[in-house]
Amino acid sequence: MENSTEARAKLTPNAAAKPAVPTTLSGKLRAKLPSRGWMIFWTTFGTIGGLVVRDHYLTVDAKKRIADKVDVLAKQSCGVQDMPRKVTVYITAPPGDGIHKTRHYFKAFVKPVFDAAAVDYEVKEGLVEGQIQAMVAADVRKKRRIAAGKQSALSEAEQSAPIVPLKSVSDGIVVLGRIALAEVLQGYNDGCLQSLDDPEPVVVAEKVEEVSIKDEAASLATEATGSVEATGSVEATTSMNKSEDTSASTEAAVAAAAAELVAAAATAAKDGEKKEEEKPPAPIPIPQDEAYFSVPPSGLEPVGYIPFKNLTGFRNFHKKVFALFNSYDCVEYAGASVMKVAFAETKEFEKDDLEIGRDEEPLFKKYRGPVEINILDRVREQVKLYVTPENIPELKKIDEEVVVEEQH
């Protein structure tokens, strides 16, 4: 009986063998670990999460260190009639990409330093190539015209206003990337060489063609029926073979169709005229020559260059991933460049400085060639470049007792 019971237990399919209890330490640890799929998931999740947290911590720390250095400028006293320092920021779209990349770079890495240093700024965007160059040239020419007495420093609204409000005047230019730097310097060159006299407007004689409604109706009727001769032959045949009522109804139908076509043509002509009127007139080129050369009395504004390397293409994918988890690097080297502008320490713009930003060109060589800067030496000699200050000033602390004594 015992043998038959053992044999029956062996033949039963639902009889499951009891798992062996691990006796070694490694076996006990292996029994506590999750499955292979869960191990892969938690390892990937923990690695990416750790890199994100690390980058966030280092980015916040880098921003705080830079903000502490420029905070001394924000705490300096300002007079009642004084306005905060202001700079003009020029940004443009990187080749092969949209301008949103430059906007994000400015807001993430440049703007916080300006805010910490209490420096006002005005952002001007160049949506097409050459737009920044034209804006800078127009600004330089305007200053030259004001100095020559050919233009008023106040606008028409300010001239008619009883009180002119105080406003900050830009005393520096900030560019993001080598392309914007090249356009600003070319704008300086054009603005110093342009004539101060406005060019005479070109008068274009308008040719007005007077066409009678009958001719338009005839031409439109011709287009509708095929040809004039065919229409005449058909009318002759119908007048001989048909009655007067039939011919009158045919003529009325043709006249109504011609009138509709004339009305449609007139409406289209009016719409075309409106569209032509809405188009802005083409800008009149201003003559420029070295004989017109002059510099505004206030001089040309110093230029601050901020590196901007835009990674595009599949070949730079690994660099994009690295930059995604190491954005604190951008905070440090972009913040160091913005600090130069904040402390406003400058030097002469030398010929070697024209090569600034050459390391950006390999990133966009697929979309455009190298960026060359061609300006006159006497224009370059008038330009200043922001540099790193040798000694960062410290805030002068005044004892509260001295302030109280002065007030009494």
TrEMBL record:
<dbReference type="InterPro" id="IPR021056">
    <property type="entry name" value="Mt_import_IM_translocase_Tim54"/>
</dbReference>
<protein>
    <recommendedName>
        <fullName>Mitochondrial import inner membrane translocase subunit TIM54</fullName>
    </recommendedName>
</protein>
<dbReference type="GO" id="GO:0005743">
    <property type="term" value="C:mitochondrial inner membrane"/>
</dbReference>
<comment type="similarity">
    <text>Belongs to the TIM54 family.</text>
</comment>
<keyword id="KW-0472">Membrane</keyword>
<keyword id="KW-0999">Mitochondrion inner membrane</keyword>
<dbReference type="Pfam" id="PF11711">
    <property type="entry name" value="Tim54"/>
</dbReference>
<feature type="compositionally biased region" description="Basic and acidic residues">
    <location>
        <begin position="270"/>
        <end position="280"/>
    </location>
</feature>
<keyword id="KW-0812">Transmembrane</keyword>
<keyword id="KW-0813">Transport</keyword>
<keyword id="KW-0496">Mitochondrion</keyword>
<dbReference type="GO" id="GO:0015031">
    <property type="term" value="P:protein transport"/>
</dbReference>
<keyword id="KW-1133">Transmembrane helix</keyword>
<feature type="region of interest" description="Disordered">
    <location>
        <begin position="267"/>
        <end position="288"/>
    </location>
</feature>
<keyword id="KW-0811">Translocation</keyword>
<keyword id="KW-0653">Protein transport</keyword>
